[in-house]
Amino acid sequence: QVQLVQSGGGLVQPGGSLRLSCVVSERLFNQALMAWYRQAPGKERELVAQISLGGRTTYADSMHGRVTISRDNAKNLVDLQMNNLKPEDTAVYYCHGGTFWGQGTQVTVSS
């Protein structure tokens, strides 16, 4: 059974940091490019960052320079470290691999 289980997120003030984590089923983790997406209210889901099996990373312009995606091969874990968060970063964040999605995690940036 394929699973992507997310943790982290919550409420943070502008300029703050958050770390999202996603534990992935081993088979999927070892086969797939992993990514984080986000969806703000009234907007389409958009890519935030992705990381290949070999560790090559790609970032969306919207968060480039403020976010780092990483994968821990020993733990089947994909992390998203977000810094200098802005109110416009408020969204539900999703872990993605293959054709599968995590359950979503709310990130709210507000003072």
Please explain how this structure is put together.
- The chain is mainly beta and 111 residues long.
- The chain has one helix and eleven strands.
- Strands 2, 4, 5, 6, 9, 10 and 11 form a seven-stranded mixed β-sheet that branches.
Q: Topology of this structure?
A:
Blueprint: E1 4-8, E2 10-12, E3 18-24, H1 26-29, E4 34-39, E5 46-51, E6 57-59, E7 67-72, E8 77-82, E9 91-97, E10 100-101, E11 105-109
Parallel strand pairs: 2-11
Antiparallel strand pairs: 1-3, 3-8, 4-5, 4-9, 5-6, 7-8, 9-10, 9-11
Beta fraction: over 45%
Number of strands: 11
Structure annotation, total helices: 1
Rg, alpha carbons:
13 Å
Contiguous low-pLDDT stretches (5 residues minimum) are: none
Oligomer: single chain
Order of helices and strands: EEEHEEEEEEEE
State the share of residues found in helices, binned by percent: under 10%
